[in-house]
């Protein structure tokens, strides 16, 4: 019932398109979407941080904070959606802000379930402010939605001996992870003022955001900050040892023209040096698809022995997240763009597989020939399974003995751009109800595409929302992962055999 006093203030002081709410942090003025009956509060600072230092919470805001516009994005070179013309606000190192969407109705006695989203972008780009992640549609169905920024690239994940020495905990390389923890603490302190239940928080994320969810499941400091988790096209293996991070950090500092121990030099570097402009041509994009695998990206969480002590998958297997219901899944053709740069013959396919999995080329050819129309298509499926689908499903297998766990597979392609397949992130506009945001709009330009996608959109939203409310999906035919089945989300969702045994034998 902690929300009731603040909510009376909110409901009593809403007029026009402005809404006011009184929180422990201070008084906020937000906006109101009358059609959806959803109030929104944007750009709320949850913390501030000096470069390569732990974030400090913003406990109080003076006066009435104007929360009607998104705050700055964290410095970055951009992500795939922004390269295609998607919106991103101006960038600033003072970027640790968040947004909240809440239903404009009296909450249930226990408060609304809370869904906290972590955006993707390879830990180097993205923001909660992207229109793709607008929480209005989900909030209109009876949940409070939160999205937040965290530091990216070198600002979020640089590890250096000198930074470790100056840190009071002896940590380095996890500044983005510390931001995530601080955002979750903000939720615990303040979300009741928005009608949310701080004891019913679901953490969900896609791509690097899904990887972050698994990392937080393994982080001791995150215990009790959320109660359910959803990993979308993420996985648990994308962390680095501190030794790897320190070695890379020293080389990176030299590339920046600074001694590794000269923190003053590094902190003087302008953002243009840290995030130089990139070639956005189609040719350059295809080269990045071919050469740039996320596993090789140096900017990601580190096993620093302080905030992250175990490999996340190991932590799940050992029951460190026992009691946290988990929903995991991916799309059927995550890396479908690899077809354009794939091998032209089966000998080339075997050679590429051997480079990734020595000794498995012949076996992989046998497995992928049976389900692929060409060597290039087989390579795209192999990369989908190796990089995203199997690591994500493996998280469910690891958690299944310790908590209710459910698996899914999205296998839907837009009739407008069917050749793209069920690519990485295709479920996001359907889940958030943001089909008309750019660049997602390109998938739904025809009436056929909209009508074809509606059953899937309704199913995705219903399952995620019910999982947030109860810890279980809504569909009665969706058994737990350990039963050997998953939910297939196609034009007509239904139960399918768990894809993990069939598609992931090579990668266990």
From TrEMBL:
<dbReference type="InterPro" id="IPR050309">
    <property type="entry name" value="Type-B_Carboxylest/Lipase"/>
</dbReference>
<dbReference type="InterPro" id="IPR029058">
    <property type="entry name" value="AB_hydrolase_fold"/>
</dbReference>
<feature type="domain" description="Carboxylesterase type B">
    <location>
        <begin position="20"/>
        <end position="473"/>
    </location>
</feature>
<dbReference type="InterPro" id="IPR002018">
    <property type="entry name" value="CarbesteraseB"/>
</dbReference>
<dbReference type="InterPro" id="IPR019826">
    <property type="entry name" value="Carboxylesterase_B_AS"/>
</dbReference>
<protein>
    <recommendedName>
        <fullName>Carboxylic ester hydrolase</fullName>
        <ecNumber>3.1.1.-</ecNumber>
    </recommendedName>
</protein>
<dbReference type="GO" id="GO:0016787">
    <property type="term" value="F:hydrolase activity"/>
</dbReference>
<dbReference type="Pfam" id="PF00135">
    <property type="entry name" value="COesterase"/>
</dbReference>
<keyword id="KW-0378">Hydrolase</keyword>
<comment type="similarity">
    <text>Belongs to the type-B carboxylesterase/lipase family.</text>
</comment>
């Amino acid at each position: 019932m902690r929300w009731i006093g603040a909510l009376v203030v909110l409901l009593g002081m809403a007029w026009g398109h402005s809404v006011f709410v009184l929180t422990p942090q201070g008084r906020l003025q937000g906006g109101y979407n009358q059609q959806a009956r959803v109030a929104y509060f944007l750009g709320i600072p949850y913390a501030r941080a000096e470069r390569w230092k732990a974030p400090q919470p913003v406990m109080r805001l003076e006066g009435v904070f104007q929360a009607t516009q998104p705050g700055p994005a964290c410095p970055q070179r951009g992500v795939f959606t922004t390269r295609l013309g998607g919106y991103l606000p101006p960038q600033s190192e003072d970027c640790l802000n968040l947004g909240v969407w809440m239903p404009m109705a009296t909450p249930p006695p226990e408060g609304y379930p809370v869904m906290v989203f972590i955006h993707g972008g390879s830990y180097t780009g993205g923001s909660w402010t992207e229109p793709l992640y607008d929480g209005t549609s989900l909030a209109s169905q009876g949940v409070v939605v939160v999205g937040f920024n965290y530091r990216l690239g070198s600002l979020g994940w640089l590890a250096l001996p000198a930074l470790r020495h100056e840190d009071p905990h002896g940590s380095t390389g996890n500044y983005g992870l510390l931001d995530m923890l601080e955002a979750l603490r903000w939720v615990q302190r303040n979300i009741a003022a928005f009608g949310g239940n701080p004891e019913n928080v679901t953490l969900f994320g896609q791509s690097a955001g899904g990887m972050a969810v698994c990392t937080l499941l393994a982080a001791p400091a995150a215990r009790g900050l959320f109660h359910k988790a959803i990993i979308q096209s993420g996985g648990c293996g994308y962390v680095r040892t501190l030794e790897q991070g320190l070695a890379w950090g020293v080389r990176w500092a030299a590339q920046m023209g600074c001694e590794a121990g000269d923190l003053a030099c590094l902190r003087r570097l302008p953002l243009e040096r840290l995030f130089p402009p990139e070639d956005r041509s189609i040719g350059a994009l295809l080269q990045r698809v071919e050469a740039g695998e996320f596993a090789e990206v140096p900017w990601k969480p580190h096993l620093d022995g302080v905030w992250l002590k175990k490999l996340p998958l190991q932590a799940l297997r050992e029951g460190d997240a026992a009691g946290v219901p988990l929903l995991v899944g991916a799309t059927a053709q995550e890396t479908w763009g690899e077809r354009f740069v794939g091998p032209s013959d089966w000998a080339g396919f075997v050679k590429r597989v051997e480079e990734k999995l020595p000794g498995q080329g012949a076996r992989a050819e046998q497995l992928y020939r049976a389900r692929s129309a060409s060597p290039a298509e087989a390579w795209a499926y192999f990369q989908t399974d190796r990089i995203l689908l199997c690591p994500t499903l493996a998280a469910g297998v690891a958690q299944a003995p310790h908590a209710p766990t459910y698996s899914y597979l999205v296998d839907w392609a837009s009739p407008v751009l069917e050749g793209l397949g069920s690519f990485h992130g295709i479920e996001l506009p359907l889940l958030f109800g943001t089909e008309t945001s750019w660049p997602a709009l390109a998938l739904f330009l025809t009436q056929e595409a909209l009508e074809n996608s509606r059953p899937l959109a309704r199913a995705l939203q219903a399952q995620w929302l019910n999982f947030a409310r109860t810890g279980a999906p809504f569909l009665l035919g969706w058994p737990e992962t350990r039963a050997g089945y998953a939910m297939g989300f196609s034009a007509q969702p239904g139960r399918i055999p768990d894809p993990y045994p069939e598609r992931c034998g090579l990668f266990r």
